[in-house]
Amino acid sequence: MDWFTERQSKGLSLSIGLKKKLFEGNSKFQKISVFDTIEFGRMLTLDDKVMLTERDEFIYHEMIVHPIFQMLKKCENVLVIGGGDGGTVREILRYKDVKKIYLVEIDEMVIEVSKKYFPNLGKYLNNKKVEIKIMDGAEFVSKTNENFDVVIVDSTDPVGPGEILFSDKFLKDVSRISRNIVSQTESPFLLKDFIKGYHRKLRKYFKRLFYYIVPIPTYPSGTWSFTIGTNENLKLKGKIELKYYTPEIFKSSLSIPPFYRT
């Protein structure tokens, strides 16, 4: 049996048994690979780091979208930074009041690969409500004159092209165009200090934070975090129940163990 191994930290690796490699290519920004795995179905990796698998992607995509959408009074105009696989857009499109989704993805090859190898995700990028812009997300945010009900930062890790999306300047620029931001904020087990620093920056521009953790088996340490920053008085109101997300699950995910608190 062949194995894919991701080195998640200096002393931790995750290995996943493979059936076969379906694709490998290099864009201007990163190596992109697709595998058919034994336990997790098809798997997308960027620079040899797991981005999604068919078996557990719904946890990530439901939990980056529905907590904020279930608290907003209205959400018509949405900006997604990253998210070229289409999973975040799929979840946003559940809301009929959404009129426009701008998806700003720096790497066009991610979109092309997703549409070919993950059609149940990539097909949502063809929706008429979605406008795709192939460019740097931070540059778009700094220059746009649009206002958004929420900005969702569905980024890679805070290194390389993704590093600027966790910067002070980027957060300041986001606060100019939206009262709400959602970001994936890495593993609280492995990168607690990074999350603390990000939250310090976020509090400079958003008056209230919702920090929550979820289990994602193929992500580093198996535990992942998300953070909502808002300048609105948000309250959970929705009743939607999906494969992972329910109102009760979200409420419980906000109960952060002392070890993970920032």
UniProtKB/TrEMBL annotation:
The gene is speE. One of its GO terms (molecular function) is spermidine synthase activity. GO terms for biological process: spermidine biosynthetic process. The keyword Zinc-finger does not apply. The active site is at 154 (proton acceptor). The lineage of its organism: Bacteria, Bacteria division WOR-3. Spermidine binds at residues 61, 85, 154-157. This is Polyamine aminopropyltransferase. Its EC number is 2.5.1.16. It comes from candidate division WOR-3 bacterium. S-methyl-5'-thioadenosine binds at residues 30, 105, 136-137, 161.
